[in-house]
Amino acid sequence: MDTIASSAILNDGIIDGRLAARMVRKDVKQDVLSLRAEGIHPRVAFIRVGDDPASEVYVGAKVKACGWVGIRSEHVHLPDGTTQEELAGVINELNDDKETDAVLIQLPLPDSVGTKAALNLINPLKDVDGFHPTNLGGLLAGHGPLEPCTPSGVMRLIEMMGLNLVGKHAVVVGRSVIVGRPLAAMLARAHATVTLCHRHTANLKDHVRQADVLVVATGVTGLIRGDWIKPGAYVFDVGITRCEDGKLRGDVRFDEALERAAGITPVPGGVGPMTIARLLENTVRCARLVRGLQEPSIHRA
Questions:
Q1: Same-domain pairing of 158 and 137
Q2: Catalytic residue numbers?
Q3: Which regions of the chain does DSSP assign to beta strands (E)?
Q4: pTM of the model
Q5: Predicted confidence band of residue 279 (pLDDT cuts 50, 70, 90)
Q6: The domain spanning residue 44 has which CATH number?
């Protein structure tokens, strides 16, 4: 990896997720070209149910990113009121489709369908988001072939910045199966000492103040105050909320935290771009897994 580009990821205390994502996409594009030379053209299907505006934006961003690296994509948009059986039919069809290497269900789903039941239907080898119990179990067992994109995106940022986690105290605020719990496992795998906090944690600020590495993923705007941050800590803000003034903000009070942290991800432009970059990597990985081919050459933290 280019040393100058790597050092630019952290600039004046701000961790540039957009730059890091561009570097990852460059590697993915090369791997896609290698696959195409073997007659394999990776393809991912995005399933969106209902008309949630944010979901539409997120899927659009993922489709655009696929185009940048040469991955084929399909946006399957199902209407509000879609039943569990109808969604299951679409998932099973994509599971059986030899032209589709990866399948993603855009969350959240409407009340008419159950999220857990839908995610469990995806072929684990095509589970590009890494949410199937088989893949989550593989993560907890050591190293699953497909791991959730947002937590693995955080880990990749940490690696690209050259941060050594051995013996460091990592605090994760938020225990969702999408981010918090898998990330805690990844941090522990990297030999950090991990504290996992949630809405019932007593004296949250006292835990946060001990963190050498802090990751916040709650969706509660401005939850973490700047004076909670340990001087010299690295802060990864996964939360993103559109506020009444139309601006996107994270779970950490950015300006306050920037005064104390050695590095912090902005919202937007921090963890989000790396989530999509890891999705692209996982799509390439799915293309190989479903064919029983060797692990892709692109790097994985």
A1: no
A2: 62, 106, 129
A3: 10-11, 14-15, 43-49, 72-78, 102-105, 169-173, 193-197, 213-216, 234-237, 241-242, 248-249, 263-264
A4: 0.93
A5: very high
A6: 3.40.50.10860
